């Protein structure tokens, strides 16, 4: 059997090095730490940058882990990277919409809330960061389901829970909802997890357009929806604008 491939070992060592400490290192620092020639380290970094595994800071020239690692699934950096890239846009979305904003990422067949901005008023609110939400009963979850067949498969292993009479609990209904999300580019919920509450969400994309998370607003149905029950056109525009902005920061140039 052939032995290990040295270039891959070195690339892995660079990724591990960037995952520690400050997370931003120059070519010289990386070369010295790994006892590599500076030219060798630079060549590997350029290759990793080309596939989105590392990014170079324009101001300092130093390298850090890239957004493409968000999709690897095993990365303990996923949540932190997504949150750090989206936090400013989430704050702006809350200010523009006047509603609570949540950012979600897939975790073990559910939606992990990685960031939550309170509705900008004086009402009593509970922080949802770290909460696991159902995929099929939330706007955030529907977005993730629509673009990840493995998540859809996870719902087939058991009967989806009915939280209210509006919750989608059949495979046919969920499949139809996912198709609508892909066609429209956004998802909505209306009393499907909690009666009287609604939400709107849009996909956050990384390199190559891969969906790595979702961002959305949530609140009382009368504020989130039009009188006919459809999502507010104004809020939908704000959510989609925020999703595109975060996606651009993550390297999804098409969005």
From TrEMBL:
Recorded superkingdom: Bacteria
Family matches, as Pfam families: HTH_IclR, IclR_C
InterPro entries: GAF-like_dom_sf, HTH_MetabolicPath_Reg, Tscrpt_reg_IclR_C, Tscrpt_reg_IclR_N, WH-like_DNA-bd_sf, WH_DNA-bd_sf
Keywords: DNA-binding, Glycerol metabolism, Transcription, Transcription regulation
Domain HTH iclR-type: 5-67
All residue ranges annotated as the IclR-ED domain in the record: 68-252
GO BP field: glycerol metabolic process; negative regulation of DNA-templated transcription
Entry's Gene Ontology molecular function annotations: DNA binding; DNA-binding transcription factor activity
Function: May be an activator protein for the gylABX operon.
Protein name as catalogued: Glycerol operon regulatory protein
């Amino acid at each position: 059997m052939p032995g290990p491939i040295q270039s891959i070992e070195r690339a892995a060592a660079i990724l591990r090095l960037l995952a520690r400490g400050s997370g931003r290192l120059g070519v010289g620092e990386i070369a010295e730490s790994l006892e590599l020639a500076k030219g060798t380290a630079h060549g590997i970094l350029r290759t990793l940058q080309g596939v989105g595994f590392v990014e170079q800071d324009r101001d300092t020239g130093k390298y850090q882990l890239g957004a493409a690692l968000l999709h690897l699934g095993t990365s303990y950096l996923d949540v932190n990277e997504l949150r750090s890239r989206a936090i400013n846009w989430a704050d702006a979305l809350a200010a523009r919409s006047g509603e609570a904003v949540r950012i979600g990422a897939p975790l073990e067949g559910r939606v992990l809330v990685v960031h939550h901005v309170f509705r900008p008023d004086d009402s009593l609110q509970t922080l949802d960061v770290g909460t696991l939400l159902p995929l099929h009963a939330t706007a955030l979850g529907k977005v993730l389901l629509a673009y990840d067949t493995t998540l859809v498969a996870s719902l087939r292993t058991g009967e989806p829970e009915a939280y209210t009479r509006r919750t989608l609990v059949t495979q046919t209904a969920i499949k139809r909802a996912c198709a609508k999300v892909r066609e429209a580019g956004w998802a909505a919920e209306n009393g499907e997890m909690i009666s009287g509450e609604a939400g709107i969400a849009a996909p956050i994309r990384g390199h190559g357009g891969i969906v790595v998370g979702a961002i959305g607003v949530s609140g009382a149905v009368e504020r989130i929806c039009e009188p006919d029950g459809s999502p507010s056109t104004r809020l939908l525009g704000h959510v989609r604008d925020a999703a595109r902005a975060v996606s651009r920061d993550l390297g999804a140039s098409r969005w």
